[in-house]
Amino acid sequence: MLCTFILLVVSFLVNSAKRPSFPPSCVGAAHEFLALVDGQCSYCRIRETNRTYCILYLRSNMLKSKTFVKKTRSGGVMKIVREHYLRDDIWCGSEICTECKQESTVLQKDSCIESDLCSSPHYLVPDTNVVLHQIDVLEDPLIRNVIILQTVLQEVRHRSAPVYKRLKDIIHEKEKHFYTFTNEHHRDTFIEREPGESANDRNDRAIRVAVKWYSHHLDTAESDGLKVVLITNDQGNKEKAEESGLLVYKCEDYIKSLLANPELVDRLALTNDETKDISSSKVLFPEHLPLSRIQMGIKGGTFLQGTFRASRDNYLEATVFVQGEGEETTEVILQGLHNLNRAIHQDVVAVQLLPREEWVAPSSVVLLDEREAKDEDDTEEEEKEKAMKIIADDAARKPTGKVVAIIKRNWRPFCGMLNSSLIKESTRHLFTPADRRVPRIRIETRQAAALLSQRIMVAIDGWPRHSRYPHGHFVRSLGAAGDKETETEVLLLEHDVPHQDFSQAVLSFLPKMPWSITPEDMAVREDLRALTVCSVDPPGCTDIDDALHCKTLENGNFEVGVHIADVSHFIRPGNALDLEAANRGTTVYLCGRRIDMVPELLSSNLCSLRSNVERLAFSSIWEMDDKANIVKTRFTKSVINSKASLTYAEAQLRIDDTNMNDDITNSLRGLNKLAKILKRRRIEKGALTLSSLEVRFHIDSETHDPIDLQTKELMETNSMVEEFMLLANISVAQKIYDEFSECALLRKHPAPPPSNYDILNKAAQSKGLAIHTDSAKALADSLDMAKVDGFPYFNTLLRILATRCMMQAVYFCSGMDSNFHHYGLASPIYTHFTSPIRRYSDIMVHRMLAVSIGADCTYPDLTDKHKQSALCNNLNYRHKMSQYAQRASVAFHTQLFFKSRGIVNEEGFILFVRKNAIIVLIPKFGLEGTVFFDNKDKTGPKLVFDEEGPSLMVEQHIFKIFDKVKVTISLDDSNVQHQKIRMSLVEPEIPGVSVPVPEVGPMAKKPKLDV
């Protein structure tokens, strides 16, 4: 070892003249020195072959090493040496400086932020808490020439990953002039922690030392009086800085002193809820218990920990999902503001169960918080809480509790609007979030009149016990409410969909154009260009993931191939393009817009299996007999040339047209024949055939408004493609699990708990039928036999309800779970392989499959089951949020569709019955809406709700699930923030409840379709 080190030193000295200089950016956290980013030193970007010299150079400037011993789990002793490297040539980053030998500068010479407090040019140095709490202020274009110390950057990284990412994004913006100074590795600014000194106090002292160094370092004739200003909200830190002769201000004081943008004060986060209180002093909520007591209570079983999920339909109710052992989850009902105790949707909370005699059943009341803003508890609120409670027997009651502490806040910037009822001259206003599950938020703003019709973002700062609503601050304006671009931006932000343009770092890893398949590619791939391969996709699809072929072999069997775009060829592990795709997780399809997971050059060009162009593919090829039994399976990297890019309708026409007998059509007919056998076999094994209504909008080419919508029609070719995609996914799943038993990325679909089927069973019983849910096979058979004479749509409705009972399918790592079963497909193992352009999970599966067939090399993260599990968690989250975003986009475009069409009269079916409303499905439009039977003033219709039915008697008429009704449909835009489709009952006719049949409106004139 010593000889090797001596040889390296000699080599370093001999070659030092030829080596590049070591820029000060090489200095950073010690563990990052050895990190590689795309084969380069993570700081100086010297190639890997030069890393040895970087390390030797740093070792030659080492301050000291600390040695200590640590006891291992096995009882042994391990010697640990920690080295800290210091340098004296780290750049200060300022244009003014003449001492530093810096190749580039960030901090400007003319730093002119006009301030009443500091009239001289100045640089800002924020401490950690200012960065953590005032990141919205730091993002403002006015704030420039800021020094971010390494001490602060490291603390922020450990304490808040979202803020750290935002800070890094600011640092990378050239026009912001934020400079990172590695004070922990500068000889003059590094300090040791003193005996008895806390880590926080040591870091505060390190910040003050760095500010003092900067002040002296830049105190030259050329500086023209430039100052270095420490920004802190810590009174103790401020006093010590002043004692040291530093220029220091509180963040709030400094921001208020700025002349260029007085509205920036609106973006200040409240630092102390009690002193910033803008409400009454009456205590409305119980105090949250300290963390130490909560930890003991959870360990002892007194308290339960779970995720708080607010109800969309009732602001006085929520559910806490407590994860038990394995996959078992307990639901705890919370009712009333007192028991919700300031928890916000998706917070991690500690709950205490109430005595069993106080347990309640979930409320069936639809209750929205539309009252005036009041902070005192009043009788109106108490009356609502009493009205929502259901008198139920013990069997219907569920565990009920109250929130006693917030373990982890899930606060984020929320989109929404200011309340329209503004008080003139007031700076205190109420903000209503777009998400009804989030309570209204009190903010202070001086620009309320200008923001009244705008969609804005607001962040929560705290929630005092004596305030009816949480307190927050204005972040930024998003645009005019109702504007298509603004509303799309809102739904993307609300569902946390990454939609920014791809960065230059990401784009730099795209292949250079013009691109073509090289001889080296052909040498390691199977040439399948002669096969009659074609793709079948929805109309307008440009990101074509998959293609198929089928041909008859000499022995009478069939060769069937599924060919998938080889995206993993272009996206290599660990580079910026790969990391961005992993973070995005999935392509998000909105109405009229697509948010790509990978840049368009790949998604719509080089990876898309378009017709008549050569493309790289990953092929799964089977030999099958005429009964669709698999004789042989193989996987291969390939080159294909698709002979046709067809829509589902075009492929169906080819199959049905007996006059067509070309190779493509014959291939499709063979695929269709085998697919029917595969589907029948799957269903016989218990695979579910469920139903959900999807709509497709016809968009005007000029205005981009929806001019017609219709439910999607499924053809045989839809099923044909689906069957072979399922077969490929199952085959690949087994292959990668055989090779990577501990780290295979798989997908499972858990069986629903029996309670999930309650509404399905009640719905079937209302028609005298029984649904068996003991297994997927029993459920599938029951659904097949569930028919009602004279009601052909009944079975579809029942399958729609059954879909609502299902659990979410999720990705998981095989080494972290033992239950692989996919309930809906009745398959013992499953994964995603067939859509790598739009799903990152498929890219990972491609890499595993490539390794398993010897077509590629493995890498450490691929076989790390903990990293794979963390990746699966992100993919599950991104997939779920993309689904929500898509539904929100459909809802918004549905509102646009009905906006100019007046009142529409349509037939529908009751899907759910509530205590004061019915939820109606309109099959023609794939639309769900709520018909309310309001009884607020006690003079409305008489309502009698039966939980067991469930049924609702309105006057003398009883409504049950699946009853046919006729309703009017219109857009209620009285609330710009929450425009909604309003439904009113037409038939059955109930005096005082039903509305008259509307006159013929604009819908009578059918709009011209843009086809």
TrEMBL record:
Keyword annotations of the record: Acetylation, Cytoplasm, Endonuclease, Exonuclease, Exosome, Hydrolase, Magnesium, Manganese, Nuclease, Nucleus, Phosphoprotein, RNA-binding, rRNA processing, Signal
Lineage: superkingdom: Eukaryota
GO cellular component: a single term: nucleoplasm
Residues making up the signal peptide according to the UniProt record: 1-17
Cofactor (UniProt): Mn(2+); Mg(2+)
Domain RNB, chain residue ranges per copy: 525-855
SMART domains: PINc (SM00670), RNB (SM00955)
Summary of subunit composition and partner proteins: Component of the RNA exosome complex; within the complex interacts with EXOSC4, EXOSC7 and EXOSC9 of the exosome core complex (Exo-9). The catalytically inactive RNA exosome core complex (Exo-9) associates with the catalytic subunit EXOSC10/RRP6. Exo-9 may associate with DIS3 to form the nucleolar exosome complex, or DIS3L to form the cytoplasmic exosome complex. Exo-9 is formed by a hexameric base ring consisting of the heterodimers EXOSC4-EXOSC9, EXOSC5-EXOSC8 and EXOSC6-EXOSC7, and a cap ring consisting of EXOSC1, EXOSC2 and EXOSC3; DIS3 associates with the base ring of Exo-9.
Protein's name according to its UniProt entry: Exosome complex exonuclease RRP44
Organism of this sequence: Gadus morhua
